[in-house]
Design a protein that fits this description.
It contains 11 helices and 14 strands. The chain is α/β, with parallel strands linked by helices. It holds the Pfam family CheB_methylest.
Length: about 350
């Protein structure tokens, strides 16, 4: 069995030891080296040619973001970011995922029974990704002005996981300022989704924020499911067209679904029940099959559905599962999805 070779980069010797100890329990992974800072890491990459790098976000001599930018420009390879679960850690990690990191894991808290519980799975997944030179988020088309667009009353629901930070940035920055209301579930840890929403709010013409319980859905707003302990659903009326009971966000504590909380299936399932044909479902890059059953429920309820195609997906897992179940009406490259959402929810163009 060929093992995937991993380089562990962290300025803390104890953290390097812990990460290595976790990875060494997997028979298909091999830790081939350690580095205490980006300068050591640069030489280790040249000498060892690892398949995957785990990278601390904040280190001496050159911070993790600077190093990641140089790496993605000069020698792109799969990188898993290791971050503290803090507001600062969330901000830096969000930026790292935009630059080109594959995924992130959080440093364990004191007394954590399963430190780095999902690290092995994420490193395995990263080892399967092949990156071309100069990988960056696809350039999004400029958002159309409000005068060229009128929302038709539909709700847009989007699900994403690994690679979703790049993908969602490309899609949401392409939407007009008065876009149809958009609800999003992206698999990310708590606090990271807040940083991600704040970052998107600065980049997008629409207003982007973490969803709050009871928030009414309104045009020109994007609602990101908070990471952590609750699922995002919608509840209330089925349409935005003058209903006395408009649809609203609902945050619900419940067990994980498909190993995730929040879960894309939970969001899509609620949209199918509440909005039916008055919705558009979109599934983007991600590992696993979360969202496939929910998107199929949306399509059976009369909603339009789109999926990201294999060529533009960092991980063609979730979109593939949804396509194979018959949930996806059309597959599109990422660069076209934002414009397609705009066209499909434009009152003037709806047929």
């Amino acid at each position: 069995m060929k093992k995937s070779r991993v380089l562990v980069v962290d300025d803390s010797a104890s953290m390097r030891q812990l990460i290595s100890a976790v990875l060494c329990t997997a028979p298909d992974l091999e830790v081939v080296g350690h580095a205490a800072d980006p300068l050591e890491a640069r030489q280790a990459i040249k000498d060892l040619s690892p398949d995957v790098v785990t990278l601390d976000v904040e280190m001496p001599n050159m911070n993790g973001l600077e190093f990641l930018e140089k790496l993605m420009r000069l020698r792109p390879m799969p990188v898993i970011m290791v971050s503290s679960l803090t507001s600062r850690g969330g901000e830096v990690t969000t930026r790292a995922l935009e630059i080109g990191a594959i995924d992130c894991v959080t440093k364990p808290a004191l007394g954590d029974a399963r430190p780095f519980g999902d690290l092995i799975e994420k490193v395995r997944m990263a080892a399967t990704v092949r990156l071309g030179p100069g990988r960056t988020a696809p350039a999004a088309p400029a958002a159309r002005g409000a005068d060229a667009y009128a929302p038709d009353g539909r709700i847009v629901a989007i699900g994403a996981s690994t690679g979703g930070v790049e993908a969602l940035t490309a899609v949401l920055t392409a939407l007009p300022p008065n876009c149809a209301p958009v609800v999003v579930t992206q698999h990310m840890p708590a606090l990271f989704t807040r940083s991600f929403a704040e970052r998107l709010d600065k980049l997008c013409a629409a207003t982007v924020a973490e969803a709050t319980d009871g928030a009414p859905l309104s045009p020109g707003r994007v609602y990101i499911a908070p990471g952590g302990g609750q699922h995002l659903e919608i509840t209330g009326g089925s349409s935005l067209r003058g209903s006395g009971n408009p649809p609203r966000c609902r945050l619900r504590e419940a067990p994980p679904v498909n190993g995730h909380r929040p879960s894309v299936d939970v969001l899509f399932g609620s949209v199918a029940k509440v909005a039916g044909a008055e919705a558009l479902g979109v599934i983007l890059t991600g590992m696993g099959r979360d969202g496939a059953d929910g998107l199929l429920a949306m399509r059976r309820a009369g909603a339009a559905t789109l999926g990201q195609d294999a060529a533009s997906s960092l991980i063609y897992g979730m979109p593939k599962a949804a396509f194979e179940t018959g949930a996806v009406e059309r597959q599109l490259p990422l660069r076209r999805i934002g414009a397609e959402i705009t066209a499909m929810t434009n009152k003037t163009h709806r047929t």
